[in-house]
Design a protein that fits this description.
Elements (H helix, E strand, L loop, with lengths): L5 E9 H11 L3 E3 L8 E10 L4 H7 L4 E9 L10 E9 L2 E9 L12 E3 L5 H11 L2 E15 L6 E11 L7 H5 L10 E8 L5 H9 L9 H9 L34 E5 L2
Parallel strand pairs: 7-11
Antiparallel strand pairs: 1-6, 1-10, 2-8, 3-4, 3-8, 4-5, 5-6, 6-11, 8-9, 9-10
Length: 271
């Protein structure tokens, strides 16, 4: 699926403010797909970057045009047989275009992007160019709990609150110890990230809530924060990540553009 360009805004909010905003917006929002009865879902993302962390550096250097590639599952682990999504995000300042491949029957070996070949001619080039140009390999993972809503009338509006943000090494499993480790926390437990996404502009009720709460748009890069928290930005002379080898498995080992599987599994085009 190729989503149209949409505007994305982020705000850091205290959990008390989140409660007040949801009460104010209750009549305008409905819970989003992939969530439970309380509009909650876990979100686990494996990010991919070049050996010298080009995507990480694009953000640090403040480039308006930048990219992001990640494998995402709405679960606490990448479960065999579950549905996952490979996502490519092209950002032009506040405007974002997302390419999304649906993986209906996930296998852990698919964490290696070299084993994939997209089956849709309209979006496959976007993945192919990034994969080959940047020699993509697994970088940091992020985990968080998301409270997600969509506009009840304005269906292009999406409002999410992300909390309990954790950083993980590539290929590392989410454990209780990691969740309790303060060194893995990407932001204080008292805060959440409010994300507002819209294609046709902010509706009045949403804009008024943001103004009433005196929120300020902020840059809150989960991936960049995870890279720095985990120390993945440290490079050895060969230009490879300084990650613990114990987290690397055969399913997440890097592969060159010329070493793709001889019979790659096609990705399903998301409906």
């Amino acid at each position: 699926m190729i989503r149209p360009h949409r505007r994305e805004l982020k705000f850091g909010v205290h959990l008390d403010v989140k409660v007040l905003l949801l009460e104010r917006w209750r009549r305008y929002l409905v819970r989003a797909p992939f969530t439970d009865g309380n509009a909650l879902t876990p979100v686990l993302s494996q990010y991919y970057d070049s050996p010298d962390l080009a995507f990480y550096r694009e953000k640090l250097e403040g480039l308006g045009l930048r990219n992001k590639v990640r494998l995402r599952m709405y679960a606490m682990e990448f479960k065999r047989g579950a549905t996952a999504f490979l996502e490519i995000k092209h950002r032009d300042d506040e405007l974002v275009r997302k390419y999304r491949y649906r993986i209906p029957d996930f296998d852990p070996r698919y964490l290696d992007l070299g084993s994939w070949l997209a089956d849709n001619p309209d979006v496959e080039p976007a993945f192919q160019v990034l994969y080959e140009r940047f020699r993509l390999r697994p970088s940091a993972q992020t985990y968080y709990q998301r409270e997600a809503f969509e506009g009840a009338v304005e269906r292009d509006v999406r409002v999410t609150f992300d909390s309990n943000l954790i950083g993980l090494h590539p290929g590392e499993k989410l454990t209780r110890a990691a969740m309790r480790d303060p060194a893995r926390r990407l932001m204080p437990d008292t805060l959440a990230i409010l994300e507002v996404k819209t294609t046709h502009g902010l509706p009045p009720w949403l804009r008024e809530g943001v103004l009433a709460a005196e929120l300020q748009v902020a840059s809150i890069p989960k991936y960049v924060t995870a890279v720095e928290k985990l120390g993945l930005a440290s490079l050895d002379p060969a230009g490879v990540y300084a990650w613990p080898n114990k987290f690397i498995t055969s399913s997440t080992s890097s592969s060159s553009p010329d070493s793709r599987s001889s019979s790659p599994r096609p990705m399903s085009f998301s409906p």
